[in-house]
Amino acid sequence: MRVDGLKAYYQTRWFGITREVRAVDDITLRIEHDEIYGIAGESSSGKSSLIKTIAGAIRPPLNVVGGTVNFDFGTRKVDLYTLKPEERTAIRWKHLAYIMQGSMSVLNPLRRVRQSFIDFAFRHMGMPMPAFLKAVEDHLLRLHLQPGVLDSYPHELSGGMRQRVVIALATVCRPGFIIADEPTTALDVVVQKSVLTMIREVQREMRASILFVTHDMAVHANLTDRLGIMYAGRLVEEGRTRDLFRNPRHPYTLHLIRSLPRIGDAEPRQGLEGTPPNLADPPPGCRFHPRCPIAMDVCRVMVPPMQALGGGHRVACHAVTEGTVQ
Amino acid sequence: MKTYAIYLAKRLLQFVLVVFIGINLTYVISHATPIDPVEQTISALTSFGNTSPEAIETMRESLRELYGMSGTPLEQYVSFWSRIVVGDFGPSLSAFPTPVSELILRALPWTIGLLVVATVLAWLLGNLLGGLAGYYRKNRLLKAMGLIAMGLHPMPYYVVAFVLLVVFGFLWPVLPISGGSGIGVGRGFSFDFISSVLLHSLLPALSLVVVGLGGWFLGMRALVSNIVTEDYVVYAELGGVDRRRILTSYVMRNALVPQVTGLAMSLGAIFTGAIITEEVFGYPGIGSLLVDAVHAGDYSLVLGITSVSIVAVSLAVLVIDLLYPLLDPRVQVE
Amino acid sequence: MLKIFRDLLRFNLEFAIGTLIVSIIVGLSVLSFFSPYPPEDIYVVAPDVPPSWEYWLGTTSRGQDVFWQMTAALRNTLLFGIAVAAISRVISLTIGLVSGYMGGMTDRVLMSINDTFIIIPLFPILVLFYFVMRDSMSWALLALIMAALGWAYDARLIRSVAMSLRTREFTSQCIFSGMSPRQIMTREHLPYVLPIVFSTTLNNMNWSIGMEVTLSVLGFTDINTPTIGSMLYWANQHTALVAGVWWWIAWPVIAVMLLFIGLYLLATALNEYIDPRSRLSRMGGAT
Amino acid sequence: MSGADTALLDVRGVSRSFWTGGLLSRRRIDAVKDVSFTLTDARPEIFTIIGESGSGKSTLARMILNGMNPTSGSIAFGGEELTTIRKTRDRMRFMSRVQPIFQNPFESFNPLSKVDRYLTMTARNFTEARSRAETDDASDRALRKVGLSLAEVKDRFPHELSGGQLQRIAIARALIPGPRLIVADEPVSMVDASLRVAIVNLFKDLRDELKVSIIYITHDLATAYYISDRIIIMRKGEVVESGDARAVLDNPQHPYSILLKDSVLSPDVPDDDEPKTIERDRAARSH
Amino acid sequence: QDVISSLPRKETLILENPEGTIKNAGWFNIWAINAGGQYTGLQQLAMDTLWYIDPEKGLEGPIDNSLAAEAPKYNADFTEMTVKLRSGIFWSDGVEFTADDVAYTVETQMKNTGMRWGPILSLNVDSVSAPDPQTVVFKLKRPNSRFHALFTVRFNAIWIMPKHVFEKAPDPMRFDFNKPVSLGAYALHSFDPEGKWFIWQRRDDWQRTTLGRFGEPGPKYAVYVDGGPPDKRVIAQMNHNMDVVHDVAPEGMFTLAKQSKSSRGWFKDFPYAHPDPTLPALLFNLQRADFQSKDVRWALALLIDIKAVSMASYRGAATISAIGIPPTGTHPDDYHIPMQDWLKNFELDTGKQKIKPYDPTVGKQIADMLRPSMKEQIPTDQAAIDKSFGMGWWKPNPQAAQELLQKAGFTKRGSNWYTPEGKPFSIRVMVEGESRPVITRAGTMIAQQWRQFGIDAKTELAQGTMLDRRNSGDFDTLISWSVESYGGHPDLAYFLDSWHSQYVAPAGKPQAPRNYMRWSSPELDGIIEKIRGVGFDDPRSIELGRDYVKLAVREMPTIPLMAYNVFVAMDDTYWTGYPTAEDPYANPVPNWGNSRYMMVRLKPRGE
Ligand SMILES: Nc1ncnc2c1ncn2[C@@H]1O[C@H](COP(=O)(O)OP(=O)(O)OP(=O)(O)O)[C@@H](O)[C@H]1O
Ligand SMILES: Nc1ncnc2c1ncn2[C@@H]1O[C@H](COP(=O)(O)OP(=O)(O)OP(=O)(O)O)[C@@H](O)[C@H]1O
Ligand SMILES: [Mg+2]
Ligand SMILES: [Mg+2]
């Protein structure tokens, strides 16, 4: 999958107040087959917005302002935003599945889980109903869910189970590309771990690509192959997860990783000062400069370009470019 | 199942409570009226014809005895309740000695027939069209309907009924404007009778539907336009779920839940509707019976009618409440 | 507040139309103070004159100028609606907030009463009241009774908001700031339900005015006070419709229809303003 | 203040159960089962309660804050049984010594009120401060303890402040009465990593400088390890393990504690050739 | 479309039943208390009794011996009345009518004082006997020269019960008499259980009824229907769906006259309405302090501009009367015309001056006032004007009114009047509302005129409570009638007897009918007692009647206004030969018992 120069803004006009929130601002990235690509960043840095744009799940007020999203599903290559609506619908679930943020509420509360499966997946599977249900049950079993959940209403399931049902729903058609937006927040650590394990398992099995978003760095550290860091609507750093954790180059990434407390380590740590930027009126130049400990004059006026550092590691920081950092 | 029984019991208790409060309220109000049914009867009897004053006194005594209006207020209240629990409202005072229950039973089918049918029809149509209008926001026809509904909905029912009456009964006299069936049409399961009843119910039913429809239409449309932004609808759309399926099983189905409660509430308005509809269109039924009874100072009939309507409405609400868990599996016992 | 009003006016067509209509009506009712003769008087002008230059809206069979009659009627009708709305708002706010905040037994008792009021058939009760009060059923008394009967539904609405407010963290924060329940209800929760109160006010006015019109037309109120309902009452008394004095009926009906539509539009616009979700769906068709 | 050996908070065998469920399935939930612990006044500490979600942490916190009665067992604060604290005066006295901090900084303040109102109200209700100047002064002093000042906060609405600021204002407010105990229920779960550290650092300062005991409720083992002195681990309402925080977390004994610790994903990436935890699990599973 | 599909319209007469919807339609026992409808055709077509008296001329004179073969015969001291009955009269079930039926009627009701005429019969009758099938003898408990009036239909009377039917009922009070057996020329055909219509069919043996003497009744079917509100009745007649409308608002009548060629009223032209022998008046509650002085009452009378009241209430279509006798039937000849001179010379002392308040030209003034808009519809002939609009009335005289009020101790401060006690002089004018629109309008006008004079006057609507409040004396003033007469006969005892002070109830207690103003006057009592002593047809009773009028003018216990004009609208699309002012053979007002005489004169159109 390739994303080029993607811009998506929330454009709201409400009783005379026009606001443009630049939630996704000029983002370019690639995701290969059979890898998990993670996106991290502060709350409201535009992660969900990016993901919605990539999944084609935009609705007003979120509008795509520029850029392209291209998928390569092996058998066919598509540009999501030039596709006819019917074709887009056809691709969905068969090739491209999406796990929304807040997946607690994505299931119709008045429909049994079984019916949701039929609604979403039946027509893609091309098999008679009994066989289809069997396939679904098998799939659920793989996710350690009893077939009994099919007869439940969503509210009868615990958070973890619901989350797993949604994952099952997204993966039952074995799509080549899965987009997941914070599928494990709101789960406690024990459940979270098992869900993540499952995601990994499914991915490996299907050799699918996953775009995985969360602001929990620990999850990234353990799950993703590559990682992109977003700050205020921009991608500020990208690279192999291990490289990024070991050798973060952008001051924001650096700080993010340094501030993580660990069990067995009671070293004092420092929080990040200042407030996150308002995306309706982002600071000029590098958007991180008001909070950046090493901000220079150039940061205040010029947007730093993405700089390749080798090994797929890219960063957008004047300091790195000029070598003032490390 | 046990919890359902507890719920049932609680709901029943509430039902009894509401009925009890309601009937007491009407008892108190109706007994506070200065109208004395005996005097009322005497006035009616003597306003024509020659009756001497002494004769009136004799008559007053006989009537007082006949109407059973003796005893202290407390005794009357107790005997009222002891009779009412077995469904005996006593004889009507203005149609003595015909029992109140007989009068009510005669009137009830008309009211129920017309109003319940019209209310439910308005509900069904309004929700269907409103749901469609909320989902297909761009459809011209539905938009136009929305405008009409918007204009009609706030209108007081009387005004609408009156305008309809003028239009179809006077300016363009094609529909009967009074009565429940034609003059001289015999009762029975005959074509004549049924067609006559249907014809006579057209205008009142139309007025009820026109007014009711608008409210449901707008309510449903608003609900649906909220529901389409719910995560599960968005997700279903992203998942490429059949649009008709989304409309029916995701949008309408979920919007229906509050609307059913609304239906229960609007059943409460039936008896209000009954009075106005029946007065405007001269339709027979419980509403005109009530107005008559009030005019005649016949409080046993008034109490009978209000009690029946309170019980009926509370019962309707109760039934809908009890069915609610079927409609919405999420409902919890408090 | 003023800014919200201006924004609504500028950017919400419904609100603008509603405001326009309601201001016309209010304007008319203010004009009633300049009426050349008392509105109750009859035979002050030639009867049955159709709309003309001299009598814009015609005159009634009772020898009243429909225009001046209508201004007085609108004034009284509006005042009636406002009175009912104001009183019933106070009741529903009190009951709703207390019940929602207190919960428990208080809530259950209050809601039982509330449910009774929702369920009992209103109109028969009103008619009954008319007979108890008999002929001393004045305008103010009717307003009081209507208010006493018309709060229940809104109280439930307010209660449900208050209930959710109670579980919000800031309410606990208030408790631990040492605020008393009364302070919390009036200072912290009231602002939240005010928008609801506002938009239900308009609906309530619609309801009470409609009730008043209906009751008057059926002759169950004080017909000496000119209101839209009593105007129609008198017109019916004079078989104005079949007698061809259509202007006696048409103008008040049009006026009351406008009033209702105006109030309704205002209520919907406000509702929309309050509800954040419909704000979003306004931005462009959802599908 | 009470003597050195008086317990500040004494939780003895506290249990609490609820009835829940849908219409057709009703069941009892023992949210808290027989929990006991003691905090002493002499040695302020950060006492952490950790556990899976639904393990009864918040329920326990509410009982300590006297917002709910235990089904059995008792809680005493400063030697006084909480159940005896019912009168408004007693409650106020209790609240001046025990204060809460809530989970969601954005939710802890009424978006329609200015944030300094909470500070002022707390100052007025729990301290001697009466006049505007006095309350301002009290607020400012409290704010300075958390690295803010009244000038930054005055007349601002919650939406004008960042989550970190808001959470600090909430803490400042809790400090105004000069409490002995602060109960913080998941104060950092809604904020992102960098803010988290800032807030727990503040807790440390409170303990060390103001000698306030803190009950810190969290899911996050890492911050618990980082700041707490003692810890209890809860599961399904029961305390499964307790003791010195570092000791317990370094070397958990109870199977659940072990599972919990194992489930915590470490933000450390392993070496290139070593599989990640999740990979390990996956591999283990597929066999 | 046709209203009636099941009956041949050409043979059917449709009349309005002003009772509206009968809530207990299946009840025909008219002798029990009013459990069902009465004017559903029941009293008009199915019932019969001894005599009928017409408010107008009648078919063969105002008095018709119906079941009785001749006028009643009293003994000298009026303690016994003997009645000879007709023979050859049969009930609709074929049983012959005899004196036993009459005796049974009386005895049954005397036994059951809860029955309609039970109390009055048991008060008067000692015993009743039927010495032979054609003779009934009533022995009375005390002298009563007008006992026969109980069996004389003005509006209604004691109807004769079928002994052979009621005998079989265990309790005559709880017997519904469905289906009714009739003595009249019509028998019940069918009825609406909802009480909206009743259909009566001409008896095949109509000759064997008392109406048979006048020939065959025209309509084969007579249908009494609920007319609904006034506009619906007008619409119904315009669509030829209602042949006789009982009453509409004046405007409705004008509309019908203008728009429907086939409709007409009692008068061919203005004022259309049939004046009932009933006199709406403003009744003072004489037990209230403010109205105890006749000066106050006169003052209030002199503040009324009857022309405006006539316009406001009937749009001018009223027949005014200054005296307490309806200006209808034969009354003008007996009272109004002979008394003109007395009225013209009547003097009133205001305390400051003496005035002659009577203005004999008011009727003419009304006619003149109406003529520009009504053109040739308004008669010019003085006799016709007198008949249509009435003769004279009191001239408005605010100056005299002021003097009279001051004489009575009232004071004017600013523009408002105060009672002698210093309270604002406030008067509520009670009216009945929608059920009597013209009365309501008259009240509104009168209140306005008083208000303009500085009295706090207002109408008070007593819809549905009017009868009750009237009887219990719960009013200041009231527009209603305390005067009802025969119209076709000069005797006034019908109402006047009940004005005797012996019947006046103390304040707060219910007042027996007619003397609702609770007037007690020894002078009046004297007149009444004298009338009791003279016979029904004795010319002396007219003299005594005039004495009553003079007394009432001086005392002004009520302010007489006008005849109760009923806008009966008759449609001759299907039927011709209705009674009219030109041919006043019967009362067309269809709820009156004597409207039955109309049937024999009605002919299908085109015959
Ligand atoms: N519907 C909307 N209208 C206007 N602005 C919006 C809307 N939704 C989100 N935003 C704004 O867009 C920005 C990015 O939001 P987004 O949800 O993409 O963040 P995120 O990184 O996913 O945050 P989180 O970690 O909290 O999920 C935020 O500043 C947010 O306030
Ligand atoms: N008011 C209540 N009524 C019914 N059940 C309740 C109530 N409060 C809590 N519970 C139940 O008690 C159990 C413990 O809840 P509690 O909120 O204390 O857990 P927690 O440990 O704070 O969980 P989390 O980590 O999700 O905040 C849960 O199963 C919850 O559903
Ligand atoms: Mg997000
Ligand atoms: Mg919790």
From TrEMBL, chain A:
GO CC annotation, single: plasma membrane
Bilayer topology term: Peripheral membrane protein
Domain ABC transporter: 1-257
A Pfam cross-reference name: oligo_HPY
Coiled-coil spans in chain: none
Subcellular localization: Cell inner membrane
Annotated spans, Disordered: 265-284
InterPro entries: AAA+_ATPase, ABC_transporter-like_ATP-bd, ABC_transporter-like_CS, Oligopep_ABC_C, P-loop_NTPase
Top-level taxon of origin: Bacteria
Chief site of localization: membrane
Keyword terms of this UniProt record: ATP-binding, Nucleotide-binding, Transport
One GO term (biological process): peptide transport
GO molecular function, one term: ATP hydrolysis activity
Protein name: ABC transporter
Organism of provenance: Skermanella stibiiresistens SB22
Automatic annotation (TrEMBL), chain B:
SUPFAM superfamilies (alphabetical): MetI-like
Transmembrane regions: 12-30, 110-136, 157-177, 197-218, 255-276, 299-324
InterPro entries the record matches: MetI-like (IPR000515), MetI-like_sf (IPR035906)
GO process terms (BP): transmembrane transport
Compartments where located: Cell membrane
Chief location of this protein within or outside the cell: membrane
Gene3D superfamilies per the UniProt record, alphabetical: MetI-like
Record family assignment: Belongs to the binding-protein-dependent transport system permease family.
Name under which the protein is recorded: ABC transporter permease
Lineage of the organism: Bacteria, Pseudomonadati, Pseudomonadota, Alphaproteobacteria, Rhodospirillales
TrEMBL record, chain C:
Transmembrane feature ranges: 12-34, 78-101, 113-133, 139-158, 213-234, 246-270
Family note: Belongs to the binding-protein-dependent transport system permease family.
Localisation per UniProt entry: Cell membrane
Gene3D superfamilies reported for this sequence: MetI-like
Membrane-topology descriptor: Multi-pass membrane protein
Domain of life: Bacteria
GO cellular component, one term: plasma membrane
SUPFAM superfamilies: MetI-like (SSF161098)
Major location category of this protein: membrane
GO biological process, one term: transmembrane transport
Protein name: Peptide ABC transporter
PANTHER family hit by this protein: OLIGO/DIPEPTIDE TRANSPORT, PERMEASE PROTEIN (DPPC-2) (PTHR42729), OLIGO_DIPEPTIDE TRANSPORT, PERMEASE PROTEIN (DPPC-2) (PTHR42729:SF1)
Keyword terms of this UniProt record: Membrane, Transmembrane, Transmembrane helix, Transport
Organism: Skermanella stibiiresistens SB22
Domain ABC transmembrane type-1: 74-267
Automatic annotation (TrEMBL), chain D:
Localization in the cell: Cell inner membrane
Compositional bias per record (Basic and acidic residues), positions renumbered to this chain: 275-287
Membrane topology, from the record: Peripheral membrane protein
SUPFAM superfamilies, per the entry: P-loop containing nucleoside triphosphate hydrolases
Cellular-component GO terms for this entry: plasma membrane
Keyword ATP-binding assigned: yes
One Gene Ontology MF term: ATP hydrolysis activity
GO process terms (BP): peptide transport
Top-level taxon of the source organism: Bacteria
Main location as per UniProt: membrane
Region (Disordered): 264-287
Record protein name field: ABC transporter ATP-binding protein
